[in-house]
Amino acid sequence: MVSEIFAISAAWSRAVIEFAAGLDPWMQTAAEWGTDLFLGVFALLFLMAWWRARSAGSRLVGLALFAPVATVIAYFVSLTIKSFFEQLRPCQAMTDLTTIATCDPIGDWSFPSNHAAIAGAAAAAIIVAWRRYAFAAILFALLEAFSRVLVGVHYPHDVTVGLLVGAIVATLVSLAMSRPMTLLVDKVAENDRLRPLVRSGDRPAQEAPKHDTYA
Prior knowledge:
It is a single chain. The chain has nine helices and no strands. By secondary structure, the protein is mainly α.
């Protein structure tokens, strides 16, 4: 079963890499830059979620502030999983193909994709904190995952597992830290100088009512 899945994934990867080889040079350059720049979008979404959460209550502010930390935790989980596997990247295994990205040396393994794990984690953490950004978060997570296949450094199963690992870990740790982060935000709100970091305008320190949670 595993070998069959890998065979299908490898075939898809070969098809995508061959397609990418036929793209115009400017499109290849855009894909190579985009595979890293897409991750930068999540930094902007983190900021936007935090900014909006300030008007919604302590719990969401805490979740928004913790979102980058949850993403880092998910990255290290992915990195740990990767250390147990020694799967070659497509660009290392399919030497007859020309890939957009410069191939990493053997020893920098393929499964799972750390980039996809970061994207999946960031998307999940943002959705937990401010679900109105769910569409954008999911879209850029999928674009990031696809870009890793397009430039030839990961198989489809690498990015699929990476997305799942990132999303599951980030969701679990975010929910686990919800209460402590809420208490921390309430404590910060008691300080006049720091209150603007966690409160919008003259909003009182207590948690927002339920109907206001995802406004």
